[in-house]
Design goal:
By secondary structure, the protein is of the alpha/beta class. It has helices at 11-21, 38-47, 62-76, 82-85, 91-103, 121-126, 144-150, 173-183, 225-228, 243-256, 262-272, 278-294, 323-334, 362-372, and strands at residues 25-26, 86-89, 109-114, 130-135, 155-161, 190-194, 219-224, 237-240, 301-302, 310-314, 336-337, 339-340, 353-357. The chain is globular.
Length: 375
C-alpha cells in the first residue's frame, strides 16, 4: 500500500524527458546552462587534490557556517550563531523535507499557498499531517483573508515561498505585516520561508523573513547555493533557524544524510571569501529583459516577473487547450519545453498559463524565442 497514493511522477521529470525525446529546447526545468564562474571551478580543481574527501561535521564545514553567518549579516543585518542556528543541507529540498519531518506532528495542519512548488506536500503527508492548500489571487498576490480563515489551533506551519516559484512574485512589506498579525493569534505556528531565489530579484528589493523581528523566533529560512551560484547539481543549501527549532531539525538531519558533500562545502566557503552576491541580480535581470524583448512580437502575453529566473506567459490568444496539452504540443510541434502552471495547484486550476526558465545562455534564449514566435 502506497504512503503517497496520489503523488505521481513530477511534471519536471515528464517535461524534461519529453524535451530530450524530441530534441526540444528545455525551458521547463529550472537549471542554468551557462558556465559556472571559473573562480569557483578553479577552487574545486585545486581542492580535489587535497585531503577533503571524508565526512565533515554533521551541521556543516565550520568555515562555511561562519561565512553563511557573515553573508546573512551583510545581506540582512541579522546576527546568527553558526554553532546553533545554521545547518548545511543536501539542497533546499532536503532542508524543507527535514524541517517538516522534524517539526510537524501527526494530525497537524500545514498551510501551503497555491500555486506552490511540488516538494512541500509529500513530507507533510509522510508525517500523517494535513496539507491545507490555499489559492492566491489570480494576480498572484496573497489572499490574506482566505489564508487567515485556513488557520486554526490545528495549524502547525505556514509555508511561504519568496521570491515565488512559479510566478516570480515577491512579498511586500504589507504582506509581512498582515502575516505577522495572523501569527499573533496563533503563537504555535511556525513559518517555513523558502527563499532559494533571494538574490534574484529585480526592480523591487527582496524582503526576507530574516529582516522581520516578529518572525525570527518562529521561522525556518531555506536558502540555496545551487540556485545562487548556478550549481544546481551540487545540491548544497542551508537552513537558518532559532536554536530551539534547529535542535529538532538536526535530530532528523543526522539520520537522513548526516553530512553534506565535503568538497563542495569547502569550495563554496572559499568562494564566499571572494565573490559578491550583488552580481547575481544584475545577471538575471539582463536575461529576463532580453528574453522578454525576444518574445515581444510573439502571441504570448508575458506576466510581470519580479524575481526568480522564471517567466510566466499566457497563451490565451493562441489556444483554448488546457495547459498540459498545450505544453506537450509546444514540445512536439515547436521544439520548446515549458511547465504548465496548473500542475502547481491542488485542483489543477487552468488559467492558460505556462512557465519558461530564462536561466540560459543567449544563444539558447534566441533560438527558443525564434521558435516561440512561430506559435
Amino acid at each position: 500500500m502506497s504512503k503517497l497514493p496520489n503523488i505521481g511522477t513530477s511534471i519536471f521529470t515528464i517535461m524534461s524527458k519529453m524535451a530530450a525525446e524530441h530534441d526540444a529546447i528545455n525551458l521547463s526545468q529550472g537549471f542554468p546552462n551557462f558556465p559556472v564562474d571559473t573562480v569557483l571551478t578553479d577552487i574545486v580543481a585545486r581542492l580535489a587534490k587535497e585531503n577533503l574527501h571524508q565526512y565533515l561535521p554533521m551541521a556543516g564545514y565550520p568555515s562555511l557556517l561562519s561565512n553563511i553567518a557573515l553573508l546573512v549579516k551583510n545581506s540582512y543585518r541579522r546576527i546568527i550563531l553558526p554553532e546553533t542556528e545554521i545547518l548545511v543541507t543536501a539542497g533546499a529540498t532536503q532542508g524543507i523535507f527535514t524541517t517538516i519531518q522534524a517539526l510537524v506532528q501527526a494530525n497537524d495542519e500545514v498551510v501551503i499557498l497555491d500555486p506552490s512548488y511540488d516538494c512541500y506536500e509529500a513530507p507533510i503527508l509522510l508525517c500523517n499531517a494535513k496539507p491545507v492548500r490555499v489559492s492566491v489571487n489570480d494576480d498572484y498576490t496573497p489572499n490574506w483573508n482566505t489564508i487567515e480563515n485556513a488557520c486554526s489551533t490545528k495549524t502547525r506551519m505556514i509555508i511561504i515561498n519568496n521570491p515565488h516559484n512559479p510566478t516570480g512574485k515577491i512579498l511586500t512589506q504589507s504582506d509581512f505585516e498582515t502575516l505577522e498579525s495572523i501569527l499573533a493569534q496563533y503563537p504555535d505556528i511556525i513559518v517555513l520561508s523558502d527563499e532559494v531565489y533571494e538574490y534574484i530579484t529585480f526592480e523591487e528589493k527582496h524582503i526576507s523573513a530574516h529582516t522581520r523581528i516578529n518572525l525570527l523566533n518562529r521561522c525556518v529560512m531555506v536558502s540555496s547555493f545551487g540556485k545562487s551560484f548556478h550549481v544546481t547539481g551540487w545540491k548544497i543549501g542551508y537552513l537558518v533557524a532559532p536554536a530551539h527549532l534547529m535542535k529538532e531539525i538536526k535530530k532528523v538531519h543526522q539520520f537522513l544524510v548526516f553530512s553534506v558533500n565535503s568538497l563542495c562545502q569547502v569550495a563554496i566557503s572559499e568562494y564566499l571569501d571572494t565573490v559578491s552576491v550583488d552580481g547575481i541580480r544584475k545577471l538575471y535581470q539582463k536575461k529576463r529583459d532580453y528574453f522578454r524583448e525576444l518574445l515581444a512580437t510573439s502571441r504570448f502575453k508575458l506576466l510581470p516577473c519580479e524575481g526568480t529566473y522564471f517567466q510566466v506567459a499566457s497563451y490565451e490568444a493562441i489556444s483554448s487547450e488546457n495547459d498540459v496539452d498545450f505544453c506537450k504540443r509546444l514540445i512536439t510541434e515547436y521544439g520548446v519545453a515549458a511547465i504548465p502552471i496548473s500542475t502547481f495547484y491542488e485542483n489543477g486550476k487552468n488559467l492558460h498559463l505556462i512557465r519558461f526558465c530564462f536561466a540560459k545562455d543567449n544563444a539558447t534564449l534566441e533560438e527558443a524565442a525564434r521558435r516561440l514566435c512561430k506559435v
